[in-house]
C-alpha cells in the first residue's frame, strides 16, 4: 500500500504489457510502496504474464484482442478500471518492460506542488543495458531530453488522473506517438508538462539487430506524419519539423541526387550532403555513431511518413509496427 495518508496525494498505477516475462515481475515489484493500487493490462500474453501479475497482487485487465491492439487502447483500459468515487488523484503510467526508480513518485509529487498547472511530470528514463548493443545506446540517448517545461512525455509519466479523463484519455487509433498527442490536448486545455531532474525508470529495449532499429525508426516516421496531420496546424506545429526533416533527408536528398545524376554525372555528388550532415552533427553532439544513425534513420522515417500518407489516401489504418 502507498504510504501517503493525504487523499489529494494518492497515486495508482497502470502497467501495460505483453509477454514481458521476468521484466514484468521486476516492474510490478518496484511499484510496491510507491503506489496504492496497480492495474495491469495484458494484451494477449502467452507466457503466463497475466497469472503472474495477479499472483503479485495486481488487478489484471485482459484486453479484448478481437479489436486492433494499440498501447493507447491498453492504457485507456487501465484508466477506465481506476475511474470511480475513490479514484486516486494521480496515476503512474508505466510500460511492463520498465522499472520505476525508488523515490520518483515522491519527487514528482513535489514537482506538482511547485507547478500548480502541471498535469504531467516525468523524469529520466534510462536503458538498463545501454552498452549491450549500439541500438540500446541509441535508445538511451533518445530518452535524454531537456529538463523543465516540456512539450510532451513518453510512455512513463505521473499524471493528474482527472485531467487525463477530462480530455478523453489516449487516442486509441494511434499505433505510436499517443503520449505526445495526449500532451497536445492537455496543454491546449491549460495544463503543463514538466520534466524534472530525477531518475524515473529503467527500460529494457532488448534490441540486438539492425532490423529492430529500422522498424522502430520507421514507426517513429509514421508517428511524426500522423501527429503533424492531427495537430500540425496548432500553435506548437506538432511534429511538422520532424516530418519535414524525414522527407528532406530520407527522400529529397537521394531522389535529387539520382535525378541530377541522370542529367549529369556530377549530380550524383549531391549524395555527399549525407556525410556532410553526419560530420556537422558529430561535431555538435561529440558522438559520431549517433550522428551516423541520425542521418541514416531518415530513410526509415521517410518510409514511415509515406506509409501513413498512402494509408490515409486509401482510407486504411496501418497496423502495429512492432520491433520486438
Protein architecture, described:
The chain has helices at 22-31, 49-55, 71-82, 104-114, 134-143, 161-166, 178-188, 210-231, 240-263, 273-285, 288-296, 298-314, and strands at 11-17, 37-42, 59-62, 90-95, 98-100, 118-127, 148-150, 157-160, 192-203. The chain folds into two domains: 7-208, Spore Coat Polysaccharide Biosynthesis Protein SpsA, Chain A (Alpha-Beta Complex), CATH 3.90.550.10; 231-314, no CATH class. The chain has twelve helices and nine strands. Strand 1 (11-17), helix 1 and strand 2 (37-42) form a beta-alpha-beta unit. The longest helix is centred in the C-terminal third of the chain and has 24 residues, at 240-263. The model has no long low-confidence stretch (mean pLDDT 94). Helix 7 (178-188) packs parallel to helix 8 (210-231) and helix 9 (240-263) packs across helix 12. With 324 residues, it is of the alpha/beta class.
What are its keywords?
2 domains; Spore Coat Polysaccharide Biosynthesis Protein SpsA, Chain A; about 15% strand; about 325 residues; alpha/beta; globular
Output the radius of gyration: 21 Å
Within the CATH hierarchy, at the fold level, what is the topology of the largest domain? Spore Coat Polysaccharide Biosynthesis Protein SpsA, Chain A
Instruction: Return the structural class.
Output: alpha/beta
Q: Quick check: average pLDDT?
A: 94
Topology order in helix (H) and strand (E) letters: EHEHEHEEHEHEEHHEHHHHH
Number of domains as seen in the coordinates: 2
Q: Which helices and strands, and how do they pair?
A:
Layout: E1 11-17, H1 22-31, E2 37-42, H2 49-55, E3 59-62, H3 71-82, E4 90-95, E5 98-100, H4 104-114, E6 118-127, H5 134-143, E7 148-150, E8 157-160, H6 161-166, H7 178-188, E9 192-203, H8 210-231, H9 240-263, H10 273-285, H11 288-296, H12 298-314
Parallel strand pairs: 1-2, 1-4, 2-3, 6-9
Antiparallel strand pairs: 4-8, 5-9, 6-8, 7-9
Amino acid at each position: 500500500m502507498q504510504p501517503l495518508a493525504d487523499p489529494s496525494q494518492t497515486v495508482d498505477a497502470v502497467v501495460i504489457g505483453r509477454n514481458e516475462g521476468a521484466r514484468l515481475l521486476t516492474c510490478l515489484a518496484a511499484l510496491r510502496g510507491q503506489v496504492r493500487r496497480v492495474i495491469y493490462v495484458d494484451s494477449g500474453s502467452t507466457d503466463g504474464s497475466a497469472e503472474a501479475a495477479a499472483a503479485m497482487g495486481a488487478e489484471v485487465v485482459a484486453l479484448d484482442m478481437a479489436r486492433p491492439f494499440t498501447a493507447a487502447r491498453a492504457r485507456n483500459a487501465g484508466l477506465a478500471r481506476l475511474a470511480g468515487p475513490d479514484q486516486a488523484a494521480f496515476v503512474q503510467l508505466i510500460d511492463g518492460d520498465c522499472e520505476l526508480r525508488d523515490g520518483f513518485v515522491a519527487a514528482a509529487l513535489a514537482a506538482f506542488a511547485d507547478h500548480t498547472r502541471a498535469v504531467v511530470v516525468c523524469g529520466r528514463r534510462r536503458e538498463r543495458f545501454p552498452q549491450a548493443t549500439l541500438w540500446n545506446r541509441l535508445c538511451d540517448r533518445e530518452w535524454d531530453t531537456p529538463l523543465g517545461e516540456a512539450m510532451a512525455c513518453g510512455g512513463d509519466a505521473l499524471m493528474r488522473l482527472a485531467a487525463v479523463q477530462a480530455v478523453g484519455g489516449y487516442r486509441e487509433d494511434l499505433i505510436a506517438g499517443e503520449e505526445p498527442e495526449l500532451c497536445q490536448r492537455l496543454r491546449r486545455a491549460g495544463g503543463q508538462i514538466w520534466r524534472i531532474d530525477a531518475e524515473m525508470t529503467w527500460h529494457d529495449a532488448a534490441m540486438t539487430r539492425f532490423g529492430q532499429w529500422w522498424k522502430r525508426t520507421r514507426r517513429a516516421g509514421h508517428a511524426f506524419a500522423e501527429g503533424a496531420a492531427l495537430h500540425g496546424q496548432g500553435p506548437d506545429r506538432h511534429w511538422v519539423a520532424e516530418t519535414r526533416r524525414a522527407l528532406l533527408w530520407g527522400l529529397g536528398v537521394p531522389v535529387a541526387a539520382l535525378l541530377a545524376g541522370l542529367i549529369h554525372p556530377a549530380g550524383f555528388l549531391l549524395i555527399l550532403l549525407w556525410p556532410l550532415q553526419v560530420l556537422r552533427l558529430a561535431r555538435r553532439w561529440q558522438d559520431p555513431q549517433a550522428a551516423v544513425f541520425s542521418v541514416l534513420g531518415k530513410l526509415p522515417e521517410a518510409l514511415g511518413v509515406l506509409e501513413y500518407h498512402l494509408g490515409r489516401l486509401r482510407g486504411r489504418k496501418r497496423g502495429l509496427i512492432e520491433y520486438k
